[in-house]
Amino acid sequence: MRSSSSNLALRFWQALILVGVFAAWHLLTAPGILPPIYFDDPHRAPFLFGEPLKVFSRIWVWFAGGDIYRHLWVTLVETLLAFVIGTVAGLAMGIWLALAPTASAIFDPYIKALNAMPRVILAPIFFVWFGLGIASKVALGVTLVFFIVFFNVYQGVREVSPVVLANVRMLGASPKQLLRYVYLPSAMSWVFASLHNAVGLAFVGAVVGEYLGSSEGVGYLILQAEGVFDINTVFAGILVLTVFALVLDWVVTLAEKRLMGWQPRSGETERI
Amino acid sequence: MSFALALENITCTFVSREDRAVRYTAVKDTTLSVAPGEFVSVVGPTGCGKTTLLNVAAGLLEPSTGKVSVFGEPLAGINTRAGYLFQSEALMPWRNALDNITAGLEFRGLEAREYLEKGNDWLRRVGLGGFGDRYPHQLSGGMRKRVSLAQTLILDPQILLMDEPFSALDVQTRQLMENELLELWSANRKSVVFITHDLEEAIALADRVVVLSAGPATHPIGDYRIDIPRPRDVAEVRLVPRFIELHREIWHAMKDEVLKGYAQQLQ
Prior knowledge:
heterodimer; A: mainly alpha; MetI-like fold; 2 domains; B: alpha/beta; Rossmann fold; 8 helices
């Protein structure tokens, strides 16, 4: 356990880096502070790289005016739907193929092919199939999440200790009970190992989908701003998305801590 | 009299998955029977197919030829009258000690109140009262073995199959566990097949010691009755003259096989 004072020092340095980055950004882009180094026109730099103060005021306007909430909500719903559907499908498919060697052997080349394919190129097809609403973004996210979860579950089920399996069978578990009490918990530990990646990819699916064609969502805001060369709004959107992704990741960490309490953590000692 | 467990002319030949022509006969023409309430130790050099034999008795492995019968009935599938104590870690790491112990009762469809009561009782009986909420990784090796023991005994099996259950423990813990096993066993005599490579352990615990030859094609080469009176203390029984006599006699028969097994491992 790190002592609280060195923990505080750590936070201080982390905050300092953040402040430093924004300060440098401001100094290098605000017109008239530094003599022009590279660009002849002092308005060239802010045009290309934005200005942090304007970026922040844009974010302030979004949140104070309440404009952003609708878009954040849409992106959140798309992310969560893609995440849940992709995870459940990956879990079911992973367990099934891991327990059915023949089916697994038959499907093997197709799964490899689908996984190797850059799935973002499916977006146009999904737009045709599902329209420009939420469904097409969810579909894109699902194709990204599914394979991560699928491969992890597949691995997890196949690596269940044969001794644990034999033991549970000797204790009288039926095949159904084996699935519920052994394969599923074992697979879940692998699912959680991939959860951070899966949430990240669900988010990528949602935002990329919005960026390629939509009427709502944070990706749509960025697309709109880019269309009129409003670089400050683009950066504001990126910042909001980053913070949003951090929050999602933090929620996953919380869930993981709660559900995976049985897993050993290195250096865990008994406190009496 | 019908035996609790009877293995007749068991042969187990394993075929390589890659090349059907590569075969390995682990056990050959082995006959072994255990009377109700009898404690039989099976000793043999490392890698001689003891575990294979036990897996056959448990119904986890189907023999190539031969017959297994349990209380006179031919065995098909898992041996539901037997409990199995494995050599390596067999607890479910995602369940705490109490939930591991009650797993078998849960599978049988008992109500939570009922199996938790029994589970807590067994937790105390194996000296782990207050450790019920610990996960396996939070317990020591000896404690995990106690959980395994309780997990098996809570189902009250008529036959207990034990595969070197204490071989991973240090000497002191091991003797404690052996004494506890004897105590639990004498309270409610089950038929036991106890596999070990340690002759002293075999003699100290058993009514009968069966010696196996070195692999491949393992078969029994000796069968000795251990006429040392019970109750025994595994630490003290080693000093009894009869123990030393039996040890000398059985070791004499085993020695060549052990050397054979050792030489094979070096190859």
